[in-house]
Amino acid sequence: MSKIRKLLVASLLTVSMFATTQSALAADNEANSMETAIPLVPFGTNYHTIYDSTDIDWFVWENTSGKTYDGAFFELNCPPGYNYDLYFIKYIASINYTTSGIAIGDNGPGGTDIGHTTPVGPGDKLYLVVSPRTPFDFSPNHQFSVKVTPYPL
Ligand SMILES: [Ca+2]
Ligand SMILES: [Ca+2]
Description:
The structure is a single chain. The protein is α+β, with helices and mostly antiparallel strands. The protein has two domains: about 1-30; about 30-150, Jelly Rolls, CATH 2.60.120. The chain has one helix and nine strands. Strand 5 (about 85-90) and strand 6 form a beta hairpin. It is globular. The structure holds calcium ion (2 copies). One calcium ion binds next to strand 5. One calcium ion (CA) binds near residues 30, 32, 55 and 57.
């Protein structure tokens, strides 16, 4: 690799690291309510932080595909040493936007909390709410991730 190319790669890496840090910081006060929930891209992994003991983060996936999925899995991956809780809320479009909510089972610090729902009709909305399990479970420097996986494809 030429010297110039190496420099270019190094500076690009610096820029992307900076961008990641910036978005994590800028996101601190975001997504604290249903109205400001962060849209989830299905199958994508979405990273965020719980920046203090009172922070909560809302995410939403709306089934805009026009089709009915048999179901969807969703998950929260906690950063090592931290335990966050996952609460799931479903809006069912075909039943006048009936809402139901459930706390997803806990798998401890660094664990993955996994839930499942069936079916997911057109216009349904799946909300994921992430919160600290104890007053000591938060870190602006460690990201958790959430993911929703509808099926079949
Ligand atoms: Ca938040
Ligand atoms: Ca947990």
